[in-house]
Amino acid sequence: MANTKTVILKIKRQDNPNAKSHWEEFELAWHPGMNVISSMMEIARNPVTRDGKATTPITYDSNCLEEVCGSCAMLINGRARMACSALIDKLEQPIRLEPFTKFPVIRDLAVDRSVLFENLKTVKAWVPIDGTYDLGSGPRISPEEQEAAYPLSRCISCCCCMEACPQFNDDTGFVGAATISQVRLFNTHPTGAALKRERLAALIGDGGIQECGYAQNCVEVCPKDIPLTQSISEVGGEVIRQAVGDLFRK
Ligand code: SF4
Ligand code: SF4
Ligand code: FES
């Protein structure tokens, strides 16, 4: 018997950063194991809307196709998540695809997420290594320390946590959960800890950690199950201790 099952996708489109957005609907033949990215690849092979109008392929970011690169994040049925791991059979139809709302749209579903990378620069989210000469072996890190750091190191910079956060907006300038969690990661690294004071200082004041309202949306959408609220409370405590200590040192 011929396969008559179909998949209906409603996709929010925008031609350029300044254009008005509009919706287009597509109907595709169902195949086992389809996901959102494979559906958009199918649209690219035959870009025709459900009502028969010729259109253009959908623009979106993707690379690894296995939830590692973090580039394919978008709103799928209103939830921030990765398109490559969103199985069609697990989604309610029609499936709504929209770009993130808190990041500038470049085109269709592709957005500019550079704010996260700027925030990571502000908190110096790296291990400082001075010079290109042989520095010798680094400090030993115990298996227990490695185990504690590993979940934090799994961040893929997808920005889902920031999109879902009620406090991440232009009014607050909040850095967001991913950046705070990276502060925790690098502050607990024996060599990374050299910049601990500077990292904590960068989280004080406007847009800093005090903007977090502990709504916990971030931890619910993180595709890598990073313990974000735990990072926020740990780093929050350290920021307060450093700020109070500095007051008494004045
Ligand atoms: S706990 Fe809530 S307010 Fe804080 S970063 Fe997460 S989503 Fe945002
Ligand atoms: S913390 Fe989680 S949701 Fe946020 S950017 Fe990293 S992987 Fe994505
Ligand atoms: S394509 Fe890399 S995370 Fe989806």
Key words describing this protein structure:
single chain; 250 residues; alpha+beta; Ubiquitin-like (UB roll); Fumarate Reductase Iron-sulfur Protein, Chain B, domain 2; 2 domains; five-stranded mixed sheet; two-stranded antiparallel sheet; 13% strand; binds iron/sulfur cluster; binds FE2/S2 (inorganic) cluster
Task: Report, as a whole number of angstroms, the end-to-end distance.
Answer: 81 Å
Specify the biggest β-sheet: 5 strands, mixed
Mean pLDDT: 95
Strand segment tally: 7
What number of domains?
A: 2
Give the overall form. Answer: elongated
CATH class of the largest domain: Mainly Alpha
Strand order of the largest sheet: 2-1-5-3-4
Strand content: 5-15%
Q: List the helices and strands in order.
A: EEHEEEEEHHHHHHH
- Please give the CATH architecture of the largest domain: Orthogonal Bundle
Number of helices: 8
Helix content: 25-40%
CATH topology of the largest domain: Fumarate Reductase Iron-sulfur Protein, Chain B, domain 2
Radius of gyration: 21 Å
> Uncertain regions: pLDDT < 50 for 5+ in a row?
none
**Full CATH superfamily name of the largest domain:** Alpha-helical ferredoxin
The class by helix and strand makeup works out as alpha+beta
Associated small molecules: iron/sulfur cluster, FE2/S2 (inorganic) cluster
